[in-house]
């Protein structure tokens, strides 16, 4: 099992590093010493480095099968990844109250676009990628790597909510009242409204372009075809 030690360490660094560096005591201290203009790129650099290390360790870990994945399950990520890309594009291209650089800023009272579905579309995009790929990768190394992404996406979004509530108080509570962590919950409860005109066509189109590019490059980059 020592062959899996680098993978486990990078998984812990990937998840723990994000949580620790973004926690209010650590973040506030670093911003006070370094300034926000230094803290944000430093956070991004460390996050990228830990993700790179996680992928590197995953690629070099031995193959240990935990469960067989029927080829029919390959359709799961094929069907879900367009939505995952759309969620990611939405979360990264709109003003995102959950983003690192928005920590000290007031939030709008009405979520727009897919933020009306969930206030963390980007995190749910990563979670959807992880969940859809977990069912077709039943080896130990993939479970550790993909599981780390899934834990950070879901746990990290809850951590963001707690930090924003502590930092922004009533301003965040008002925003959260018109949205939900769990997709579609606020819509089902009538606390949020999805305006189709706000979705536009550029972001869904960008998601489809990214999806097509990944289908084309998947074998070259990952080493396996995504097609059943």
Short account of what is shown:
About 65% of the residues lie in helices and about 0% in strands.
Write up this protein.
- By secondary structure, this protein is mainly α.
- The protein has helices at residues 5-22, 24-34, 36-60, 75-93, 121-134, 140-168, 170-177, 185-188, 196-199, 202-222.
- The protein has a domain at 68-222.
- 67% of the residues lie in helices and 0% in strands.
- Helix 4 (75-93) packs antiparallel against helix 5 (121-134).
- The radius of gyration is 19 Å and the shape is globular.
Please supply descriptive tags for the structure shown above.
mainly alpha, 0% strand, 67% helix, 10 helices, 228 residues
Q: In percent terms, what proportion of residues is strand?
A: under 5%
- How many DSSP H or I helices? 10
- Encode the helix/strand succession as letters: HHHHHHHHHH
Number of strands: 0
Q: How far from one another are the termini?
A: 31 Å
Supply Rg.
19 Å
Average of per-residue pLDDT values? 90
Structural class: mainly alpha
Helix content class: 55-70%
Task: Report on the biggest sheet.
Answer: none
Q: What sort of overall outline do the alpha carbons produce when their principal axes are compared?
A: globular
Task: Give start-end ranges of low-pLDDT stretches.
Answer: none
